[in-house]
């Protein structure tokens, strides 16, 4: 098990289409898998207006909400892979030019309208690799 | 995107060796991938004494700490898969007979001593499947 640098961790995260957002809402921890993209050091995710995640972010505006975002690529057979976690502040993207810039992105796997864009500014990024046992 | 029952969600979770624990510690959200097993409706994970996770659980004894545990199997190519989340109370396992029963389990992928066993009693279990787009 070896740690990776923050830069390497962000590159690994950027190379996969999905991760898991950890946050708190009304006293309970929650985790949601979401699609993401990375641009200019920010993690952008898309959700829909009535989701618990959107509510959690909206309730704590304008300061945003501190979240943990995890991505990994784990090989069950080889018992190896990598995992990275970025802790930072999540805020809705509301500026029309930013919304236009990201229109249709990140592409999501689900067929419901994902009309809320959230940007996470990572503050603490950590990660590790697990190499296959010899 | 289709919801699954709590029973189906627990069966899916039990069928994979790894998941992601979401918790709070000292005001910050955290996510850690861990190995797990499911027995008698409980999720058992193994960590080491000096980890942030163990500290988070130990500080809140004897009430335990409410955590979210997520497992999934996502196919990046097919853009499909499943994800389940169990929210419940995590507590260290300290009874000698229980520790003996779970000795060496769950098997972990990392090569450091994972000498702390934690049991999660799920209270709210949800999950969904994403079918490949046609």
Describe what you observe in this structure.
Chains A, B: It comes from Glycomyces artemisiae. Chains A, B: It holds the Pfam family Pyridox_ox_2. Chains A, B: This is Pyridoxamine 5'-phosphate oxidase-like protein. The structure is a homodimer of 134-residue chains. The first copy, chain A, has 134 residues and is of the alpha+beta class. Chain A has a single domain, classed as Pnp Oxidase, Chain A, CATH 2.30.110. Helix content of chain A is 17%, strand content 50%. A six-stranded antiparallel barrel of chain A has the order 2-3-4-7-6-5. In chain A, a hairpin with a 2-residue loop joins strand 3 and strand 4. The two termini of chain A are 13 Å apart. The interface between A and B is medium-sized, with 34 and 34 residues.
Key terms:
Pyridox_Oxase-rel (chains A, B), Pyridoxamine 5'-phosphate oxidase-like protein (chains A, B), 134 residues, Split_barrel_FMN-bd (chains A, B), 6-stranded antiparallel barrel, Pnp Oxidase, Chain A, 17% helix, 3 helices, homodimer, alpha+beta
């Amino acid at each position: 098990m070896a740690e990776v640098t923050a830069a390497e961790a962000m590159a690994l995260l950027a190379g996969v289409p999905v991760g898991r957002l950890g946050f708190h809402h009304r006293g309970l921890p929650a985790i949601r898998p979401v699609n993401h993209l990375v641009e200019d050091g920010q993690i952008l995710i898309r959700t829909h207006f009535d989701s618990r995640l959107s509510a959690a972010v909206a309730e704590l505006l304008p300061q945003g909400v501190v979240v943990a975002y995890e991505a990994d690529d784990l090989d069950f057979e080889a018992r190896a892979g990598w995992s990275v976690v970025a802790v930072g502040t999540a805020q809705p993207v509301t500026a029309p030019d930013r919304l236009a810039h990201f229109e249709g992105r990140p592409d999501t796997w689900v067929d419901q309208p994902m009309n809320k864009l959230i940007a996470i500014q990572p503050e603490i990024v950590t990660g590790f690799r697990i190499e296959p046992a010899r």
